[in-house]
Each structure stands twice: as structure tokens, then as C-alpha cells.
Amino acid sequence: MEDLKARTGIALEHAPYRGFPQAVLDLVAGRIDAMILTVAGILPQVREGQVRALAVTAEARLPQLPEVPTLVEAGLPGAVSYAWNALVAPAAMPADVIARLARETRAALETPEARQATGTAGFEIVASGPEALAAWVAEETARWGGMIARLGIKAD
After folding, report:
1. CA neighbor of 53 nearest in space, from 40, 66, 38, 68
2. Tell me: the pLDDT tens digits for 65-96?
3. Short-list 19, 71, 23, 27, CA closest to 46
4. Is the pTM above the cut of 0.90?
5. In sequence order, what DSSP letters do the residues of 65-87 get, joined into one string?
6. Facing residues of 70 across strands?
């Protein structure tokens, strides 16, 4: 949301929450005006008409919400961001164990059943492996760390 505010100049007041459920309840109840959250976390409320999806932060429209434009389509070039999860292990784990874990995880995630279940829930699987994940984390850290420093954002 801070990135959106910086790109557009819209005046939104930050409302910190200790947890996701209370924020969604307040959004549905109209006590807050807007929020950015994962599709998986709000898809049921969108489908039930309790909230309206205005745009997605992905590079392309989502299969779960094909009628909802991206922020780029809405006129904000470069406004792409993703919430992501990763499988991680202790740094001291042996390389052969990490390689096997990555192989087995990729195989499980690439099954039609996994693709169907995660897609329906609003997740996109990227089963890339340890090296690609490390590169992604470095890229995201630089991007968001730079924005945080530039905007002077502090933790509440």
C-alpha cells in the first residue's frame, strides 16, 4: 500500500493490525477504505460480494479474477508485487539433502492435484529451486528495502 501511495500521491492513512482476520473484518464492515492483501486471503469475500477487487498487483490478470485489471493496466507502470511463501531449511543442512528436498517438493507441486488445489485457492506455484529462490529473495530485499529507506517507513 505504501508503494501505491508513493506512486499515485493518494492520501491513505496507515492502520496497523496485529492480524489479518481483524483487518478483513474491518474492510468488510467498511471501517477501513482499502487494503492490499493476498488473493487467497480475500477471494471468498470477493466472490460473495462483500468487498470489491479494484486491481491486482500481478503482472497479468489472475485466472481467479479475470475481470479485475492489474495496476499496470490501470495506469501504474512497474506497480507489480507479490506475496510469496518459500520452503526453507537450516543453513547447515547438507547440500545433498537440500537438493533432494527441492527435487521432491518440485515434483509434488507440479502434480495436477497440487496445481488445481493451489490455483483454486488463489495461489500460483513457482517451483524453482534453491538458487532461483536465493536470487528472488535478494531481488525482493533490494527492491523493498530501498523503498522502505526512501520513504522512511518505520515498523509500528
Report:
1. 68
2. 999 999 999 999 989 998 888 999 999 999 99
3. 27
4. no
5. STTSPBTTTTT-TT---------
6. 56
